[in-house]
């Protein structure tokens, strides 16, 4: 129970709010900012001056056909090429590294394929080499203000330790620390669950903009989830919140990698769909393309594929119904392979939802596919990495530009 | 996206924070307040002076053996008898009305038994009559600052409409409006789901003090729930959050009052336990005492009762495991009949939890019985009713003491 903020806290909050506004919604005139943030024009001017001096935004004449006659109103624009973060994704089949500028612009990216089960040290090496080459190519006065990595496992908030990653044999490796050392930028690398980042991303820039209570479900080899409640990622007591893939929907059902049976992951994951469709991995088919092939076959009337989608859709429907009852979300977003499964089994999912969820929380919930496609994790990692500079813009930049941190080019 | 608070907002926030501190933790010296709230002594003095002038707190010499030699430090104490709320509980078998003073002191209460299925108008009449008699007995200068009612149903946040109350035939009655009119105090009566209030109560004054991520499960004829995430009641998009009783734990299982099958409520509710134990309501046994009788019989070695508890405990374990995976709570609290069932089936619940939940979110979760016993809903209603005055103490009191509100005695 803490007291209210000081004057200095208020200024910091206002600077962060203005910067967040142009970061998420794009360039805006002072008039728009004043109205949207509920501050007067002179306060906006002072805040913009501070952010400009720090090199976080610039003011310029509006571009394009929006210009009107008379004295044009200046537009506040984020310094996308000068202020950036590094976003990393460790996927089951790929590694992605991106340099993302303030405003959410992907400035540059590297992608490497990865064989399942590869060595953690090798992963760190690939990510660090990719990132260093991106940094070398950045502008001379550009500043990296954060770094974050999305990982398909259970991550403890206190120390970013990976507690459970059945689909990657990563052990107890402190992935963030190892990557941070190899990068040599003097910046920590935060590690987050990939589906939690997906929820952040869809909330900030995807299907969930404007919806402060949403659930993101991500399918891959495993099934992950992220919950936004009251506009905030629901982390729970230690940051493990959102392990929706291990909600038991079918007690005594199919065995799960976690040791339990009938988990959502075991009933709707990639392997299960392929097994139901007689397209097991033994036949050389796995991953996203194999899932799409089943959905396409069902579309063409293939009975086995349709039955497989129906079974998987039923359990996905039970999972969604439970989440609707427990959390009353305004929106459920399906990403990864669950995007394809949702598109192929929407009628069955909605049918189970109609009987399995109470009318009150069900009537207004929307079901949607992820708007950010395969980049949900990466976009979420970038947003996570920007969090610190958005919370305290001047302080973070001052620290990074200080002489002792000259390694941060 | 709003800008930071003004000076006036900060003062209001600080007044509320100080008042909330003595409301929840009891009388405190200025030194304790300064340290706990992170404010200097002169600010604490000014805030205390404002709250004293408004009649919300008083300063006095410390009581009892805590006094030491030298100049005694004054203690700030909430004005419990002068500032109060009305808390109402509509239970399945009883109606309770209480006058609760600032600081959480139950000053006075009335209780009436109620036959299941009684007329909504009759309920409102009984509650209003009880409340008026409590108000008449209050001190001459006492002020009622809020009123709230706990109800075993699904309540829409926007207008307090009751959307689903299968165990009470209340229809679409705007219970809060009706009660507010009958009271004639010029105060609205908020209506909340009873188990949501239970979660608030256990978090504020019960088993969950200090734990900002907890789940409260309440058993009665139905099973309800309330979720506290990041210290706040998780309402979801429309206030229906926490309908844990309708999470399907056993697909195709026992029919539920909601129309679905295998809901937690259907598998662990009072009627199911009694049916499993061959003590169905037809034999004249129902309610809390009947549940206790089963637990007692199991304790004495009754095989049928033990088997009944084992079955119910299994499904309760699945429900808790799912919640632990999805929400990573630090604490799960069992209230109402689930308190007794938990005490009788703890080993089975923990056994299912051990296999059904991931190790990471499971290892630190604590399972506890409700500390507030049968008063969780009532205490929660009082806390809910106090929320407004704690958010803006001076403003609320000024409004209530204004001449045109003379009906508020």
TrEMBL record, chains A, B:
Looking up Gene3D superfamilies in the UniProt record yields: 3.30.420.40, Winged helix-like DNA-binding domain superfamily/Winged helix DNA-binding domain (1.10.10.10)
- Which InterPro entries did the record assign? ATPase_NBD, ROK, WH-like_DNA-bd_sf, WH_DNA-bd_sf
> According to its UniProt record, which protein family does this protein belong to?
Belongs to the ROK (NagC/XylR) family.
Q: What is this protein called?
A: ROK family protein
Q: Which organism is it from?
A: Actinomadura litoris
């Amino acid at each position: 129970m803490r007291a209210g903020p000081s004057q200095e806290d208020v200024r910091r909050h206002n600077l962060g709010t203005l910067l967040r506004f142009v970061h998420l919604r794009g360039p805006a005139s002072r008039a728009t900012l004043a109205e949207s943030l509920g501050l007067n024009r002179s306060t906006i001017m002072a805040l913009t001056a501070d952010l400009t001096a720090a090199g976080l935004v610039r003011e310029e004449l509006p571009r394009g056909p929006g210009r009107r006659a008379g004295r044009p109103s200046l537009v506040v624009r984020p310094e996308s090429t000068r202020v950036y973060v590094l976003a990393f994704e460790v996927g089951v089949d790929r590694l992605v590294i991106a340099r993302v500028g303030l405003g959410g612009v992907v400035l540059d990216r590297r992608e490497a394929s990865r064989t399942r089960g590869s060595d953690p040290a090798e992963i760190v090496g690939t990510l660090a080499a990719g990132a260093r080459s991106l940094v070398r190519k950045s502008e001379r006065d550009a500043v990296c203000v954060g770094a974050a990595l999305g990982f398909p496992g259970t991550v403890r908030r206190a120390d970013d330790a990976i507690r459970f990653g059945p689909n990657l044999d990563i052990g107890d490796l402190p992935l963030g620390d190892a990557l941070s050392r190899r990068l040599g930028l003097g910046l920590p690398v935060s590690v987050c669950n990939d589906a939690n980042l997906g929820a952040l991303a869809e909330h900030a820039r995807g299907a969930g903009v404007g919806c402060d209570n949403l659930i993101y479900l991500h399918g891959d080899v495993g099934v992950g989830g992220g919950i936004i409640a009251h506009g905030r990622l629901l982390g729970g007591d230690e940051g493990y919140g959102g392990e929706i893939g291990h909600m038991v929907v079918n007690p005594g059902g199919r065995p799960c990698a976690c040791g339990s049976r009938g988990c959502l992951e075991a009933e709707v994951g990639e392997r299960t769909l392929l097994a139901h469709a007689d397209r097991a991995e033994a036949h050389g088919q796995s991953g996203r393309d194999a899932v799409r092939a089943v959905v396409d076959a069902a579309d063409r009337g293939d009975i086995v594929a349709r039955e497989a989608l129906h079974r998987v859709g039923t359990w996905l429907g039970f999972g969604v119904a439970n989440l609707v009852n427990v959390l009353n979300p305004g929106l459920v977003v399906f990403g990864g392979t669950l995007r394809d499964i949702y598109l192929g089994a929407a009628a069955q999912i909605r049918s189970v939802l109609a009987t399995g969820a109470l009318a009150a929380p069900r009537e207004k919930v929307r079901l949607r596919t992820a708007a950010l496609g395969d980049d949900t994790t990466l976009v979420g990692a970038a947003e996570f990495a920007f969090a610190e500079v958005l919370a305290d813009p001047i302080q973070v930049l001052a620290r990074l530009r200080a002489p002792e941190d000259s390694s941060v080019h």
